[in-house]
Amino acid sequence: MKVVALICARGGSKGLPGKNLHPLAGRPLIEWAITHAKAVRRIGRTIVSTDSEQIAAIARDAGAEVPFLRPPELAEDNSPEWLVWRHALNYLRQSQGSYPDALIVVPTTAPLRSSLDLEKCLDEYAKGSADVVITVTDAHRSPYFNMVKCNADGTVALIIRPDNTVTRRQDAPKVFDMTTVAYVASPEFVVERDGIFEGRVRSVHIPPERAVDIDTLLDIQFAEFLMSNPSVNLPKVLP
């Protein structure tokens, strides 16, 4: 199976300016993602899609390919990342004559992942029963129990009202948070459809300590705390 890893890393970010180059344990976030991808033998190429020459240079130094710069219209705050995936796939088809068998997207925002997490995602996709494989972790809130919406009259109500009264979170239907650890997708599905849940979706469970999603400076500080805590069993992927 020919697998290409895609790392999407535009230059702008509102939540954490310069996020993709923000240091974590002395390394820029994008370097963690590149190292994770390159540690998986099944991944033949690791490509970075960016609009930033600075990010491109750092990505190449870390061992990734940057064969193109992303067009400006795909690097805005409201640019759908799905279209960034499609843009990269179209480049691959034009440059090598065909799509890979699988595209694995490795976001920069999950630096505590393990390369084994990526292996598990590829294993799940290889079963042949999904258009997309996502990663999930246990949710701390439930729309059936302790997540609410505001009504027009100023009152609040549960997002989803269960059929029966739920008095404990443990009794609510099991729900999960999507994580940014990885996505594996059929290239044809990405090109032909407009979103993950338009197809058959399967998932791989990630423990919460490896599912931290970096979006703010507080997230960086929390990740650094986990990395420095010997009681937290995190993989060591960088020398």
Blueprint (SSEs and pairs):
Blueprint: E1 3-8, E2 23-24, E3 27-28, H1 29-38, E4 43-49, H2 53-61, H3 81-96, E5 102-105, H4 115-126, E6 132-138, E7 148-150, E8 156-158, E9 176-178, E10 183-185, H5 187-192, E11 201-205, H6 217-228
Parallel strand pairs: 1-4, 1-5, 6-11
Antiparallel strand pairs: 2-3, 5-10, 6-9, 6-10, 7-8
Structure description:
- The chain has 239 residues and is α/β, with parallel strands linked by helices.
- 27% of the residues lie in helices and 19% in strands.
- It folds into two domains: 3-138 and 176-228, Spore Coat Polysaccharide Biosynthesis Protein SpsA, Chain A, CATH 3.90.550.10; 140-174, no CATH class.
- It is built from six helices and eleven strands.
- A hairpin with a 2-residue loop joins strand 2 and strand 3.
- The mean pLDDT is 92.
CATH architectural designation of the largest domain? Alpha-Beta Complex
* Beta fraction: 15-25%
Helical proportion, percent range: 25-40%
Which class of the largest domain in CATH terms?
Alpha Beta
Major sheet: size, sense and barrel closure?
7 strands, mixed
Mean pLDDT: 92
Radius of gyration: 19 Å
Write the CATH homologous superfamily of the largest domain: Spore Coat Polysaccharide Biosynthesis Protein SpsA, Chain A
Cα end-to-end separation: 29 Å
- Kindly report the CATH topology of the largest domain: Spore Coat Polysaccharide Biosynthesis Protein SpsA, Chain A
Keywords:
2 domains, seven-stranded mixed sheet, Spore Coat Polysaccharide Biosynthesis Protein SpsA, Chain A, 27% helix, 239 residues, two-stranded antiparallel sheet, alpha/beta, 6 helices
